[in-house]
Design a protein that fits this description.
Thioredoxin-like_sf; 3-stranded antiparallel beta sheet; Glutathione S-transferase; 289 residues; Glutathione_S-Trfase_N; Glutathione S-transferase Yfyf (Class Pi), Chain A, domain 2; Glutathione-S-Trfase_C_sf; globular; 4-stranded mixed beta sheet; alpha+beta; 11 helices; Glutaredoxin; 11% strand
């Protein structure tokens, strides 16, 4: 039972990130269909997912189209009650409150700091409206932990749809070095280290050319998340593996890591692995064998 999901550029589309996390972070099989933002690709893709007007939008295995990330979360939770998309018990209501406010609010933060997973700046001079949004985020995050008794990385106990909805906020705080307190910084760090977030960002780093709309002239700094292993693309093999770790197809593109050569079936499989080898369990199984 595999779903189809229409998404935009992984490096920039915050809504798409939310939608994709609802599958990858909860072990629900999905095929992603990508379109580049601000091009004719997006309306052409959405025409296949009517009546959706934007990404993300999913199609169920039976063919029903479900636009909007909040609707996707609810539909998947109904269809996969054991996946843990919403936390159990009273914490479920808190998680839904969080997701609903994130879905509809924080317009100043969204506007001043569009998501960009390819860069991190030293700062962005956030105006008062953005600082107010950050204060509200810290308030509701603390409220959620107090209401649910959560003491770990996530807001309502186990990782849930509420956390998936805030993943792009973590990316914004990271990319623009926004001022938040220690508890919020710890929550952001948990997102940056989350396996699904790392996979999405690895793909986003190599998913097409930079989008000029998102470029800012602020001084840059290194990305504060986990430091990837030092892999690089190479022109030729032979590789230790003869089949791509993801597709099982014969290898044609190659990567070097720690003096060893590994093969993949296409440039994207190789490049997403070069971006962050440890994000990919199927590759790491070969690397550590």
């Amino acid at each position: 039972m595999t779903y189809d999901l229409a998404i935009g550029d992984r490096g920039y589309s915050s809504w798409s990130l939310r939608g994709w996390l609802l599958f990858d972070a909860f072990g629900i099989p999905v095929r992603s269909h990508t379109a580049r933002l601000y091009t004719d690709e997006l309306p052409q893709l959405l025409a296949k997912f009517a009546p959706a007007r934007t990404v993300p939008v999913m199609r169920t295995p039976e063919g029903q189209v479900v636009p909007e990330s909040l609707a996707i979360a609810e539909e998947l939770a109904s269809r996969h009650p054991d996946a843990g998309i919403w936390p159990p018990g009273p914490a479920r209501a808190v998680a839904r409150v969080l997701a609903a406010e994130m879905h509809a609010g924080f317009s100043a933060l969204r506007s001043h700091c569009p998501m960009n997973l390819r860069v991190s700046y030293q700062g962005c001079n956030p105006p008062p409206e953005v600082l107010a949004d950050l204060a509200r985020l810290e308030h509701i995050w603390a409220w959620a932990r107090a209401e649910t008794g959560a003491t770990g990385d996530w807001l309502c106990g186990p990782y849930s749809a509420a956390d998936a909805f805030f993943a792009p906020v973590a990316a914004r705080i990271t990319a623009y070095n926004l001022p938040v307190g220690p508890a919020a910084q710890a929550y952001v760090a948990a997102h940056l280290a989350h396996p699904s977030f790392r996979r999405w960002r690895a793909m986003g780093l190599v998913d097409g050319a930079d989008q000029e709309f998102y470029r800012r002239d602020y001084p840059q700094r290194p990305w504060p998340g986990p430091v990837p292993l030092a892999a690089r693309a190479v022109d030729a093999g032979p590789s230790e593996n003869t089949a791509c770790p993801y597709s099982g197809k014969p290898v044609s593109d190659f990567m070097a890591l720690d003096g060893r050569i590994f093969g993949f079936c296409n440039p994207f499989c190789r490049d997403k692995t070069v971006a962050d080898p440890e994000a990919w369990p199927k590759f790491m199984a070969i690397y550590t064998s």
